[in-house]
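Page 37, top half.
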Amino acid sequence: MKIKPEGYRKLIGLTQKELAELFGISVQALRRKEKGVTAYKDREKVILRDLVREKGLSKITIDEIFFT
């Protein structure tokens, strides 16, 4: 079963508001990204990957989070 970026956000214990602040975007913009309406920027992908790695999935890749 594929875990979507939203699932990884929840796995590491962040709210939409907290992740949106880390991305420097509004909560509404993050919701659109999580629904697949708009794409994540490369910088945002790196931020989420690094946060997931810090929480214990040290070898996870951007491809695993966003494309598989």
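Page 37, bottom half:
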Amino acid sequence: VDEMEDIARISGMKDIERTSIFHALNHKATARQAAKDNNTQYEKLNLIVAHLGGGISVACHHKGRVIDVNNALDGEGPMSPERSGSVPLGPLYKMCFSGKYTYNEIKQKHIGKGGIVSYLGTNDAKEIIVRVRTGDSYAKLIIDAMVYQIAKEIGACATVFKGNVDFIVLTGGLAFSDYVVNELKDRVNFIAPVLTYPSEHEMLALAQGVLRVLRKEEIAKEYTI
């Protein structure tokens, strides 16, 4: 799904354009549910939706369109349980040309072996929270750093809306974690009320989309790659 504004596509390097790659089905389904639960329509709201899973994508939903979002696959945004997110490029250049790593090894450091797993050896949030609650200060530092980065991304999205945000919506597997949710709320609830919808809803999103078209509530959209 690519609904990004032209201004959001500018990366800062002419050869590279920012692209819309995110957890679109879960974003859209959760955003619609949040609107329904608050007796309004998705197309009337400004929402910041954060999918918190193995990858993390945080998007600006402006009246039914995702006008900006971090590319969670290619290295933008917060670190996640197994992805590095945005990293300082200088040291990365040196790693790439050091002769120590293949292309695939560098890619694995970013996706699969990056993020929390690179620091703590696991991507299991439940295990990490147990370590935090039993006094593991390093585990606490790393999970808190991830929350900090997610909060910064949410704050950046708020500037896209010039502060006019109706709700912040948290979804994905990490939204089951009271620790993660409460720490995030503590950092971002000054922006807008925070709603939580744990898990992923891709299949529901597909079914609901078909129903909306069959009921003539929505025109079917065609997306090209």
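Margin note: The chain is about 40% helix and 15% strand.
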